[in-house]
Amino acid sequence: MKITVINGTEKHGVTYRMKEIFLEEFRNDAEITEYYLPKDCPGFCCGCTQCFREQQHLCKDAEYVQRIEKSLLEADLLVFTSPAYVFHTTGAMKAMLDHFGYRWMPHRPAKEMFGKRAVIITQCLGSGGKSTAKDIKDSLSWWGVTEIKVISFKLMSEIDWNKIEEKKKADFQKKLSKIAKKMHAIDYTKPAHTGLGTRFKFYAVRMLQTSLGKQNPEYTDYKYWKANGWIDKVRPWK
Ligand SMILES: Cc1cc2nc3c(=O)[nH]c(=O)nc-3n(C[C@H](O)[C@H](O)[C@H](O)COP(=O)(O)O)c2cc1C
């Protein structure tokens, strides 16, 4: 199986250690590709909207964005990690997610995303881990990913991995390994079930695109939906 990991920080700190514990379960039989932000996607979206106009290759950061996209589309399991920075995901992660605005369902979602599984690992000192995960989950769910597992930790007192007490580290290890084992046992030849939330989003956008297409059949997003057969009977899930 293939795993693509997007690390919201380059630091080899607590987030990194937690991700390493999670991946341990997969090391023997998975092909793991990791990206570290901001290094692997250093530019901010400048709002040129080329990507929305079906010219994502003209984005000034296309070289970085398209490399990550290819890897995300090929993976069986997506892993996103981030510490909470002022209650939210890191600026680096947000900057990368902005580049994928054109893959949100109201625009041109990739059919490969439907049926994919994802894990989001966040941690914080005391508060903000959940809202950090939500920042990432918002994008994944609007990309069409249905099965998204969130693992969030509160460190409470110490944020230096080397100073965190052993009992606490053992608790983190236990929880992460348990979820990793469950995720490892999945048969990835079968797509994840596309749940009601994703289907609801899809049908709402389909109505919108149908109406936009009546006004202007040359509208980029409408043409994409039409070409995929989604305005008709085809669906991106199996
Ligand atoms: C800029 C910055 C902002 C942070 N904001 C929060 C926060 O809002 N809530 C919180 O509980 N911890 C916060 N933290 C702590 C981090 O979430 C995290 O626990 C800490 O940076 C250790 O993780 P790391 O070693 O992976 O960087 C913040 C840390 C930094 C550097």
What would you say this structure looks like, in words?
The protein has 238 residues and is of the alpha/beta class. The chain has one domain: 3-Layer(aba) Sandwich (Rossmann fold), CATH 3.40.50. It has seven helices and five strands; from the N terminus they run βαβαβαβαβααα. β1, α1 and β2 form a beta-alpha-beta unit. α1 packs across α5 and α6 packs across α7. The radius of gyration is 19 Å and the shape is globular. The protein binds flavin mononucleotide. The site of flavin mononucleotide has 18 residues, from α1 and β4.
Structure characteristics:
five-stranded parallel beta sheet, Rossmann fold, binds flavin mononucleotide, 7 helices, alpha/beta
Layout of secondary structure:
Layout: E1 2-7, H1 14-24, E2 31-36, H2 62-74, E3 77-83, H3 91-98, E4 117-124, H4 129-143, E5 147-154, H5 166-184, H6 196-215, H7 220-227
The chain binds flavin mononucleotide.
Short description:
Helix content is 39%, strand content 15%. It is α/β, with parallel strands linked by helices.
Largest sheet, described in full?
5 strands, parallel
Average pLDDT across residues? 98
User: Strand portion, in percent?
Assistant: 5-15%
Into how many domains do the coordinates divide? 1
What molecules are bound to this protein?
Answer: flavin mononucleotide
Structural class: alpha/beta
Percent helix range: 25-40%
**Shape designation:** globular
Strand segment count: 5
**According to CATH, what is the class?**
Alpha Beta
Q: Strands of the biggest beta sheet: in what spatial order?
A: 2-1-3-4-5
